[in-house]
Amino acid sequence: GPVCTNLGLKPGQRLTVKGKIAPNAKSFVMNLGKDATLLGLHFNPRFDAHGDVNTIVCNSKKVEEWGAEHRETVFPFQKGGTAEITFSVNQNDVTVHLPGHQFTFPNRLNLSVFDYFDTQGDFTLQSLSWE
């Protein structure tokens, strides 16, 4: 999927992602971080992948080292549907806003700026906006 660099997202700002989920989706990924090797938030909704069904798995990655997985069981996504996800950057965490649900994920890498975003998997990006 597309890769964005030099986003410059700082605490108090947010990124809104809109797109379409494939009809036969197994999972998709959105990464936010400094670059591809330092990911402050790896956001991975899994319809049926890696032993998880209808679960959102979040993590962080420092070079090749993954942190502890965080699982959310609220799963507002549907195969073949659309998705709108907003990531709000705070001082110590990122708030993930989903339809009818939100949760926070800690900023484990203590990133002061999120410059990098990418999407992978069974998701087609339609729009990206930040403020």
From TrEMBL:
**Classification via Pfam families:** Gal-bind_lectin (PF00337)
Domain of life (superkingdom): Eukaryota
Keywords of this protein's UniProt record, alphabetized? Lectin
Signal peptide bounds: none
A molecular function GO annotation: lactose binding
Q: Gene3D superfamilies, per this entry?
A: 2.60.120.200
- A GO CC term assigned to this protein in UniProt: extracellular space
Chain ranges of the Galectin domain: 1-131
Q: Which PANTHER family match?
A: GALECTIN, GALECTIN-1
Q: Kindly provide the name given to this protein in its UniProt entry.
A: Galectin
Which species is this UniProt entry from?
Motacilla alba
